[in-house]
Design a protein that fits this description.
By secondary structure, the protein is mostly beta strands. Helix content is 0%, strand content 50%. The protein is built from no helices and 11 strands. Strands 2, 4, 5, 6, 9, 10 and 11 form a 7-stranded mixed beta sheet that branches.
């Protein structure tokens, strides 16, 4: 059974950094596309960044230049390095994955989701 487990969330002051991790298990092969989404209270879940097997990445405009997504296929782990954090980055962060051979930041693209890890940024 496929499982995604996030970790690394926490509370930080504005300007600080956090590194999120997502451990994937149950896959026969590494998922083609893995991504991070986030959802603030009362708001819709939005795509933050994705990375495909080859290492190609894409970021949402609101994190471009501050966040870096990466993956270690040998460890079945996805990462999100978050720098220069802002209060508006406060949200639950979710890991998502798909084995389909295409990728985007659309929520419907992904068929497996983690339970989320909370990030809180204070001013």
């Amino acid at each position: 059974q496929v499982r995604l487990v996030e970790s690394g969330g926490g509370s930080v002051q504005a300007g600080g950094s956090l590194r999120l991790s997502c451990l994937a298990s149950g896959y026969a092969n590494n998922p083609y596309c893995m991504s991070w989404f986030r959802q603030a209270p009362g708001k819709e879940r939005k795509g933050v960044a994705y990375i495909v097997l080859s290492g190609t990445t894409r970021y949402a405009d609101f994190v471009e230049g501050r966040f870096t997504i990466s993956r270690d296929n040998a460890k079945n782990t996805l990462y999100l390095q978050m720098n220069s954090l802002k209060p508006e980055d406060t949200a639950m962060y979710y890991c998502a994955a798909t084995t389909n051979p295409f990728c985007s930041l659309a929520r419907g693209m992904f068929d497996s989701w983690g339970q989320g890890t909370q990030v809180a940024v204070s001013s």
